[in-house]
Structures are given as structure tokens and as C-alpha cells.
Amino acid sequence: MAKNDNDRNNNQNGMTVEEAGRKGGEATAKNHGREFYEEIGRKGGEATAENHDREFYEEIGRKGGEATAENHDRDFYEKIGKKGGEATAKNHDREFYEEIGQKGGEARARQNDNDNDNDDDDNNGKGKMSRSEAGRKGGKRSHDND
After folding, report:
1. Which tops the pLDDT comparison, 33 or 7?
2. Which candidate, 72, 53, 18, places its Cα nearest to that of 9?
3. pLDDT of residue 16 exceeding 90
């Protein structure tokens, strides 16, 4: 049985499959530039997208996030967040930040409006209310006392 295992791991030249794969990869890298790898990556991504749905990507994203979280601590996330923020600042101007701030504010307002539309006096039995609802109720009470 050891001979069969050995045969599977060696090709005709006496190399292991790992060695042959490494050599083949190095030869391919010498013969092809960055564009080649970009093209095969794009094609692979398109083929994957054709064969998988949103749930597939959500699942692999979740698994990747969990694996990353298990292998890294708070300092790691602080460092990559800082790097990302610095890179974004280099690539975008004040107008970009104004635009995303505007979009974020509008999205938050819509979310709060939806939360308020779904809230009634007993808060749907959840025992919680949105911040805007709490502020509105608190404001009413303080004006009622005037």
C-alpha cells in the first residue's frame, strides 16, 4: 500500500505532485503577466456568479468573517480600519464625504420614519422604542409641563 501512495504522490520524473505543481505555477508566472491572471480571475468570477445565488455569497462571506474574527483581535481591525480610512481619504475629496454623509443621513431618516410608522403606543409589545420616538415623546412631555 505504501508503494501505491508513493505512486500517487510522484509523477514519472520522481517529483511529488506538490513539486510538479509549484514548478508549473512558476513556469506559468514567467510566461504570463498580470493581465493573464486578471483575465482568468474575471472569467472564474463570472462563472461562479452564473452558478451561485445570493445565499451562496452571503454564506461564504459569513464564514470568511467568522474565520477572520477567530484569527484576529481588536488591534487588527483597528489597523485595517485606519488603513482603509487613510486610503479613502487619499482617493476622495470633501465633496465625496459630503455626498455620502447626505446619503447616510437620508437613509437614517427613512429608517426612523419606518420605525415610527411601525410603532404604536405600546411599541408593538416589544418594550423598546426608537431614539427618535423617545425624543419625540420626551419633548411632548416637557412641553406639556410648560
Report:
1. 33
2. 18
3. yes
